[in-house]
Structure formats: structure tokens, C-alpha cells
Amino acid sequence: MLDPKDVRFKLDPDLHAAMAVLADADCKDLGEFVRDLVEREVRRRVLTARVITERTSRLGISGNAGD
């Protein structure tokens, strides 16, 4: 397995505090909570992209601007 990659970002202090409360409620540290949250969202978006690609290809729409 490859080593995990690091991501850093800034967050509004109020949202950071709320996120810390949510992480604590889930018995996770903040890093684990954020990782799980981001992974779920990325997986959801990739699945959505796959569904869109399947459905539009059935309509004859490839998404390739050169077609």
C-alpha cells in the first residue's frame, strides 16, 4: 500500500470547533474524522461521475468536445 498523502487547508474557527465536537462525538481524533469525511465525499462524487458518464453515453453524448 502506498503512503498516505498529506493535505492542509484553513477553516473558519467556528467550523473547526464544530468539527472537533463532531469528531469527539464519533470517538475519533480530528485528523481521522476529516480523512473519513473527505474519503466519503470523494467516493460519492466519483460514483456520481460514473453514473453521469453511463447515462449520457446511452444518449450518445460522450462529453468529448471534439466529437
Explain this structure to me?
- This protein has 67 residues and is mainly alpha-helical.
- It is 63% helix and 0% strand.
- It has two helices and no strands.
- It has helices at residues 13-25, 30-58.
- The longest helix has 29 residues, at 30-58.
- The model has no long low-confidence stretch (mean pLDDT 93).
Features:
67 residues, mainly alpha
Helices and strands in order:
Blueprint: H1 13-25, H2 30-58
Helix pairs in contact: 1-2
What average pLDDT do the residues reach? Answer: 93
Query: Strand share of the residues?
Result: under 5%
The helix content, as a percent range, equals 55-70%
End-to-end separation in angstroms reads 39 Å
Instruction: Tell me, briefly, the overall form.
Output: elongated
**Count of DSSP-assigned helices:** 2
Spell out the helices and strands N to C.
Answer: HH
The rounded Rg comes to: 18 Å
Task: Give start-end ranges of low-pLDDT stretches.
Answer: none
Structural class assignment:
mainly alpha
How many β-strands, per DSSP? 0
Biggest β-sheet strands, sense, barrel: none
Oligomer: single chain
